[in-house]
């Protein structure tokens, strides 16, 4: 009896410790955000300016470090303002064009290269930007061609370039026109869709608690694994605790095209119908139903 009571107390204490750890992590994150933005506030800038304009105090005369502190704070505030302006620019201008020069002495068009920078944000943070470099390798023509890029293989870059940046046709009097604006818009749209699919799958794993090291007692409806099985992040594999497995296929916009669930007795039509209620369900709708079923 005493052993069981101690186990209950130990379990409650462990849960309380985990809760406190989560609160500490949240407070540290909040402190990091507040400390990084406090100097850019109008109140802080006004206080620093007032300190600089006021005559030095007796303490500042004795300690040169105290006298230099407002100048350091002002420099730090200016750096913070510049960083905030940069973040604002990256949010507003998701695509930036710039000119670079190819250092190769044998580069075409004198080494002139047009660079495109694509900004992507996920969960309030900027990801590593993608770059596409364009040059003009065709003689006596201003047509552009993709020279280098850092776009992931899941993005149909070659197809978009063939559609919006076709090469000149020597046999034709009127060469096909290129549309750089449509190419940029279409490419960014595909990149955003790709990251949306990745994010939706990650949110499903997070909602199911698959990122936790220790999970509670599993039931037959509990999902033990969710993973992407292709480079385009359109095929998702789902594994239940009772050894059932499912395959979900969605299009580039995240609309579910097909959902199959297999069990020991063959195809599980009941679960598939419960998850795919309509013919045009979005992956997020199916993910919400998966979380609800897993928590039952």
UniProtKB/TrEMBL annotation:
Stated family: Belongs to the CENP-O/MCM21 family.
Keyword Nucleus found: yes
Gene source species: Stachybotrys chartarum (strain CBS 109288 / IBT 7711)
InterPro entries from the UniProt entry: CENP-O
Lineage: Eukaryota, Fungi, Dikarya, Ascomycota, Pezizomycotina
Keyword line: Centromere, Chromosome, Nucleus
Top-level division of the source organism's lineage: Eukaryota
One Pfam family, short name: CENP-O
Annotated protein name in UniProt: Cenp-O kinetochore centromere component
Subcellular location: Chromosome, Centromere; Nucleus
Gene Ontology cellular-component terms listed: Mis6-Sim4 complex; nucleus
């Amino acid at each position: 009896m005493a052993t069981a009571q101690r186990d209950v107390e130990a379990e409650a204490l462990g849960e309380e410790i985990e809760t406190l750890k989560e609160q500490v992590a949240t407070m540290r994150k909040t402190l990091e955000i507040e400390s990084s933005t406090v100097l850019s506030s109008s109140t802080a800038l006004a206080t620093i300016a007032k300190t600089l304009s006021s005559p030095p105090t007796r303490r500042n005369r004795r300690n040169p470090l105290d006298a230099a502190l407002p100048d350091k704070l002002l420099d730090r505030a200016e750096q913070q303002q510049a960083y905030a302006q940069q973040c604002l620019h990256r949010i507003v201008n998701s695509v930036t064009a710039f000119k670079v020069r190819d250092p190769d002495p044998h580069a075409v068009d004198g080494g002139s290269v047009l660079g495109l920078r694509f900004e992507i944000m996920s969960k309030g943070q900027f990801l590593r930007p993608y770059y596409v470099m364009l040059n003009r390798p065709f003689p006596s023509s201003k047509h552009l061609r993709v020279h280098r890029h850092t776009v992931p293989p899941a993005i149909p870059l070659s197809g978009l370039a063939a559609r919006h940046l076709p090469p000149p046709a020597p046999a034709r009097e009127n060469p096909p026109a290129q549309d750089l604006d449509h190419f940029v818009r279409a490419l960014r749209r595909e990149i955003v869709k790709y990251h949306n699919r990745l994010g939706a799958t990650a949110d499903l794993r997070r909602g199911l608690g698959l990122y936790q090291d220790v999970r509670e007692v599993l039931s037959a409806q509990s999902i033990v694994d969710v993973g992407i099985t292709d480079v385009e992040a359109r095929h998702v594999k789902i594994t239940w605790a009772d050894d059932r497995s499912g395959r979900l296929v969605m299009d580039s916009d995240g609309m579910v095209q097909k959902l199959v669930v297999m069990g020991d007795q063959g195809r599980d039509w009941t679960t598939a119908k419960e998850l795919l209620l309509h013919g045009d369900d979005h992956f997020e709708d199916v993910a919400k139903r998966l979380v609800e079923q897993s928590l039952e």
